Amino acid sequence: MSDWTPLSKAFKGDIVTPSDSDYATSIARWATNANRNAKIVAFVKDSEDVSLALKFVKANKLPLAIKGGGHSTAGGSSAEGGLVIDLSRHVNKVKVDAENRLAYVGGGALWADFDKATIEHGLAGVAGTVNHTGVGGLTLGGGVGWLRFTFAASLASLARANMFDGSSAHGLVIDNLVRVTIVTADGSIRTASSTENPDLFWAIRGGGCNFGVVTEFIFKLYPQRKTVYAGYIVFPPPMLEQVVSVTKKWWSKGPDKKEGIAHFLTRVMLFYNGPEVDGRAAYKAFFDIGPVADMTKEIPFEALNAVHNPQLPHGLPTYLKGVRATKPSIEVAEKAFQALIQHTEKRPDMNMSCMFEYFPLAKICSVANDATAYARVPYGNVLNIIRWTEDTEENFKYARNAAGEISNIVLEGNTELASANNTAYGNYDHEISVDDTDGELAIDKAKVLFGDNYPRLQALKKKYDPEVLFSKWFAITPA
Ligand SMILES: Cc1cc2nc3c(=O)[nH]c(=O)nc-3n(C[C@H](O)[C@H](O)[C@H](O)COP(=O)(O)OP(=O)(O)OC[C@H]3O[C@@H](n4cnc5c(N)ncnc54)[C@H](O)[C@@H]3O)c2cc1C
């Protein structure tokens, strides 16, 4: 057992060990299968505390994890027998500089804090669509959200992405990141932006927790109306073909910059960044085919990223599997729906969903692939979420196989791609295991995720974290 005294002497935050009454809540994660028995949870107060904790971890050769919002289902923010640097208790504030349209956000803040603080000033930024997720993990992996803003893209890049939206589009959270304060593996507190440590700034925009502990993010904000139109419409299963057909038409015309859909096959979440009357007009084709339930309405902006919350409570074992789809497809939707029905009949104790995100992608793809570490592809995310109650290996395996089967249906529907393989969004899929471009089994999953950006990331890993202190999420091999 290590002696914590050297750490606790100078440390300003709280240290929690297994004998403390708040230990169980301190190691609890959104998905209970991600809970691990840490030896110590260090609730840091500031960057200096983070620096102390990192030095302590190195001196004692402890496994390390960083925790923001705690939503990694793969245990990315947990450390069995190790030390967790937890930013959520103290490093969670959001300050808004309304004049300069900037938000200063603690590395352990939640998106709910961000949405609430920014809209008070009539401003908003791109944020996660489930507001109890953390700003930290979601941002560092790329970050997709409902909002998108007008963007003057180059003609070449628009041509590349014009199947989605020709004039204005959606950006990733990292595309709106201005600067970070980050504590790197050697314990140094650095700032990174386009002008300060630009190589580090490049790496953290998509490179995840590979390069350090971010204690502050600074994001660009944009004027935002106080209400938006959003909610679910529901169709009976026999209408699936009609629903996807309407979705295909909506998608192929290039959705307006105010629109976006999260498609759960027969349950569809509509979003329109405007008043209800305009939203209903924009989605008239969906209403014309006759949903059996209509829960859409004009809601306060800060309620938008809470619409999914009731379906996604804390405290259940969970398996997440992401893939990407090139287009809406009736055949894929029907096969995926059948698979979901079959698995649900076999395992009624499991809650299974498959969500197709139809957020216009032009802005994401108009940023050059090598402008940030994030590997950009002009395809929409598909996310399988499977949740159950009893945390057993058998249940985990069942969920993993079922999610894999549905994901393969989606991949096989990407008929225009030379290979059925296409990598998923790293924050939706921690197990990317596709073959690499040479057709060989990928041993280094970070290599698959980052593609062409990997060699540069490897060089930066060697510069900033040669001993691979930060080994969670997609750990980059230094080279
Ligand atoms: C219900 C749900 C909804 C989701 N919705 C979206 C969505 O709308 N858009 C989207 O893009 N993704 C979404 N995701 C995926 C999400 O981006 C990832 O789960 C992400 O890892 C969550 O970050 P977190 O801070 O909550 O998690 P954590 O488990 O705390 O952290 C995840 C990873 O990030 C690292 N990390 C966290 N904070 C920091 C920090 N400050 N500095 C350095 N490293 C840090 C951790 O070490 C860990 O490896 C969703 C996931 C879930 C479960």
TrEMBL record:
GO terms for molecular function: FAD binding; oxidoreductase activity. Transmembrane segments: none annotated. Its cofactor is FAD. Keywords: FAD, Flavoprotein, Oxidoreductase. Residues 33-224 form the FAD-binding PCMH-type domain. InterPro entries: BBE (IPR012951), FAD-bd_PCMH (IPR016166), FAD-bd_PCMH-like_sf (IPR036318), FAD-bd_PCMH_sub2 (IPR016169), FAD-linked_Oxidoreductase (IPR050416), Oxid_FAD_bind_N (IPR006094). Belongs to the oxygen-dependent FAD-linked oxidoreductase family. This is FAD-binding PCMH-type domain-containing protein. It comes from Piloderma croceum (strain F 1598).
